[in-house]
Each structure stands twice: as C-alpha cells, then as structure tokens.
Amino acid sequence: AYYSLETDRRLIESAEISAKSADQVLEATQGKYDQGLITEPVLLQAKQSKAQADFDLINARSNWEVDRLNLIEVIGARPESGLRVAPYDFSKMGRRLQEPLDHFVQSALAKKPDLLAKVAQAQAAEQNLRSAKANPLPKFSLKGTQSFQQFNTTLTGAEIRDVGLQFQNYGGSVNVEWPAFDGGIDRNKIKQAESSWRAANDAIIQARDHAIAEVWRSYTNAKTAIARRESAEQLVAASKASYDALFESFNLGRTSIQDVLTARSSLAQAMALHAKSDEAIAASLATLTYSSGQL
Hints:
This protein is mainly alpha-helical.
C-alpha cells in the first residue's frame, strides 16, 4: 500500500507536467487558428489532447486518494486522520546491487525459516533411526543391595541379659536382556525409520534448491528493475528533448500538430514509466530480502 501510494504521487506529478504541456500546445494552436494559419480540425485535435491530459490528471489524483485510504486501513488509523507519507528515492542507489549474489544465497541457507524447519525434521528423523537401530541390541543392567539386621533381648529375673545379634548383608546382580525373536518388529521399525530419514533429507535438498532458485530469481528481478529505472530516465530525457524540438518547430510552422501531439504523448508515457520504476525496485528488493531470510 505504501509503495502504491508513493507511485500514485509521482504519477500525479507526471500528469500535472503532461497537462501543462497540453495547455502549451492548445495555446499555441489556438493562436495559429485565430490568425487563420491552421484549420479547425487541427485545433480540435489540440483540444482533445488537453481533455485527455485533464482526465489523466483527475484519474491519477483519484487513484492516490484510494491508495491513501488503503494505507490508512492497513496501519489501523482513522480515514479522517492526516497522513503524511515520507517519499522514497532510489536515485542514489547506483546502477547495481551493493552485495553479490552469493551473499544472499548464503543468507537464505542460514536463515530461511522453512529450510531450517526441514533441517530440524531431518535431525529428529536421524535420532529416531538411531533409537530404532539400538533397540535390538543387548541391554545390560547392574543391581546392588544392602541389608542390616539387629536382635536384642533383655530378661529380668534370669541370668541371661542383653543378648544381641547383628547381621549385615551385601548383594549384587547383573542382568542381560537380549530378545531372541520379536517377529520382525524391530526390523520393520528400522526400515520405517530409514525411510523417514531419507524422506527428510530429500525434503532438505528440495527446499535448499527452491531457496537458491528463489534468491536467483529475486536477485535478477532487482537487477532488472534497477536497469529499467536507468533506461526510464534516459527515455524521459530523450522524449522531452524530442517534444521541445517539435513544439518549437510547430511554432515556426515547420511541423504538423500530429507530430507534436505524438511527442507529447510519448513524453507522458515515459514519465509514467519512470514514476513506476521505483515501485518495481522497492518490490523486487523486498522480495529479495524475504527470499534470503532477512525479513
């Protein structure tokens, strides 16, 4: 919602510039028409272009208002609240990503939650396999005992007095358990544990390959978005130079109105592409951050 709102703001700026250029064309065309230098159909073409530019400006402002309300809803604010949005600017980013591809791949392998979950499942499966293999082995146990007995007798009126006996006993035992026949239960448990362990390791490989491919895809999209922004800047500069030259030529009576209107339309499209280029960069960088496990 934030990126859409900021893109709409830039589209409004582009639409305002386009509407201003349409005013210039219409003003120049009206002046030539008043002097009898052009026909009425030429003037109508200029008016049509001006009406289209005004419509595009209204549409851009409407889209901005809708996206503003969407952002307010996302952050949980009230619709009537004043919302000030900080702009983003990737013009200082340069022509390439600062970190190499391997940096994002290693980050994904170390931090991606779904991949880490697969590793944990494989470790648990390996532990179950070890337990299953250890179950048929002989089990040894040691047991020790100690006892103490005392017997005291006292007779009054007789010569025998205070006869006491004491006994102290110690004992120990060693137990060995080795199942001779279990009907193949242990063997089946080992097979099931091995199957689960293999499946868990295969899941790790698949998840790893998917994570690497996702990082590659996101990294490529980010590089492409940055390159497209540079191309959009060059396209805007070339389109503006072409429009300015044709408009000046039209004022001198050397160019038709169709050429000027075509150049103005191309300039408007170039500015719109440039306005959307930063949104593509932002979206691709967010995807790259997420795919590499940093978000």
